[in-house]
Amino acid sequence: MDIRFCKNLRSVRLENELTQKQVAQKLGVVESCYANWEQGRTEPNLEMLRKLSTLLHVKVDELLNDEI
Predict the structure, then answer these.
(1) Cα 9 vs. chain centroid, distance in angstroms?
(2) 1-42 pLDDT, tens per residue?
(3) Collapsing DSSP states into helix, strand and coil, what is residue 7?
(4) Angle at CA 56, nearest 5°, toward 33 and 9?
(5) Whole-model pTM?
(6) What domains are there in the chain, each with its CATH number?
């Protein structure tokens, strides 16, 4: 997983004042699953990327490519 994605995901989550647990609950995944995305151990599938972008109010492209 691209380190930019991990950093962007964490940054946007914090900007939205959400914990990892809160994001995981809203997405219907366990907290460790979400934490692994932020740590680059695993990566979300396309459906989860879409849900993340909606929940965190950013475009998928911004999560993947931009330095937020």
Answers:
(1) 4
(2) 689 999 999 999 999 999 999 999 999 999 999 999 999 999
(3) helix
(4) 50
(5) 0.90
(6) 3-64 (1.10.260.40)
